Input
Amino acid sequence: MTPLDSMNPAQREAITLSPDVSNIKDILIVAGAGSGKTRVVVNRIAYLMSEHRVHPGHIVGLTFTRKAAKEMSARLTRMVNAGRHVKLCTFHTLAADLIRGASSEHIEIIDDTDQKRMIKNILKEKDLLSTFKPKDFIEWLSSQRNQCIDPEVALESDSEDITLLRDIAKDYRTTKRNLGRHGVSDFDDLLEKAYFMLRDNEGIRKRIQARWRYLFVDEYQDTNTLQFRFLELLRGPRTQRCMVGDEDQLIYAWRGADIGYIMRSYFASLKSEETHCVMLNTNYRCSGSILSLANAIIAENEQRTGKELDAHKPKGAPVQVCEFYSPSEEGDFVAEWIEDHAGRNIDYGEMAILVRQNRLARDVERAMIKSGTPYVMHNGVAMFDSLEVKLLMNLLLLAHMPSESFYLQGVLSSIKVGVGVGDAGFLKYAKEKPPEQDWLSFAQSHKTLSKKSNFIDLLHFVDQAGEHLASGALEIAAQFLVREMDLMRFFKEEERENRSETVNVCLQVMNDYEHEASLRNVKPNIIDFQEQRLLNDALVDKMERGAVNIMTVHKSKGLEFKAGVILGMEDGVFPSGNPDEFFAQDFEEDRRLAYVAITRFMENLLVTRSRNRVGFNTMGGFSSLLDHHLAKLEEKGYVALE
Output
């Protein structure tokens, strides 16, 4: 029995389509939720190599997360030994590789924390902190760049605020260029630089286009303008492109994703034989009842291909829809529901509670603590965002660049050593210090700073850590700072045990990195480590066995659970505003978000709403997403109203 024998007809068609670009230029696989998308893509790549002798070096696959890329790579390698040579990576990883491979440009990436601190400094210098928050500026800047709009170029339609934002953007670019020895880049810079390099250098562009004959793009519905144009430049006249996605699962329009790209490819397939579309519409994940609710909601959207998913599984238990007087009552019921299903041999870790916003989960948390139900909150606080690891990273970066005031500023914002980052004196010292002189030499010779013993001791520790870094011993340098400097003394005693555990995990990540660096023949260093950990996705909470997962709907995308709850599906919460005031496009995204949430669950689903929820836009328990479907679904036994 071959792998193709276990596929349904649509899956087999997608896998075995002609690899000849003169017959098919573009392949669009519209893969509904739970339809075996990854399985099809991996088998398509294996089919090209085994049946058509395509060299693995001629194939590249782009994903939005490293987790997805690693999963594909692992599956492919199990099927075809040469699969490990296929390049499967994220957009940003490919961009960094292209820049490094085609030019001598040095890349040093800053993370979100450093970016926010840099922008906060600029706003402070311009006396604009009360006008703009760093987060708001970053969102505006990213939106401009993802739409391929130069944020520094003025337009006649600019308001006074936009003019100020453009001014901040200029200062931000200058600050990045002047930081460190070679300047630094943020995440958007990577893709932008790679795009401009391909656009403006014909020689490099043709060389890259000739390298890859088969281009795969996962989650195609999530592409923004910059990513789309980057993809257009990657493909050559002899490149076949396979785009895999689902317009019904586009939930990142607020981040620049444009549904128009996948829809235009779909309409092109109706008019031209050069674009071939395959619909994967058999859902292998959800029960018939759960899928019927998802289908009913998403069918109202206009911007879609019109597909309806068919359930491979039987009808199963009806979806429970329950309305409560208050969030407190709602939380108590949810905790009881979870315990009831745990008693039916469903592991806690196989259940989830999905919310539109984390604050919705407060009453559920209270009830679960009361009932002793184990749970984990996936609230987006990653290891590298913790105070202790941010401090360690700033110390290591300062050890690598001992003359750099920016990283010293990051250290002094976390700990007290006699010199405060908020002191006017620190800014004065930073301006007095010659640009290339290291801080230890400067402080030792400075009349005032030389008397601040704690500050001088800190710089001595950093200097010694720098010696370890110079020899390529990143983990040893980090261990030296943690132990000899006694990093934990800067935190409250009751916090030290948990923070120490987080630091130990970080040290293990560094150990893993050093092993991986040796395989790449790279001398371990903090800059390369920073790049690798940023390009390999920010570390997020892992699923914990034996604990109910509480998370936002956005964070649940790509996951699946046996049973669970969608909390607060009511106007003002989910959807988040008053539907009467929505633009149609806004409400379509809410339906897509509901569709994604519902299709995470395999067997049992509870949907809740409350009539008296404080702190949201409206109250009353009515759901514009649900209510006009419920009577028909209840009549057919797909839904049970309680």
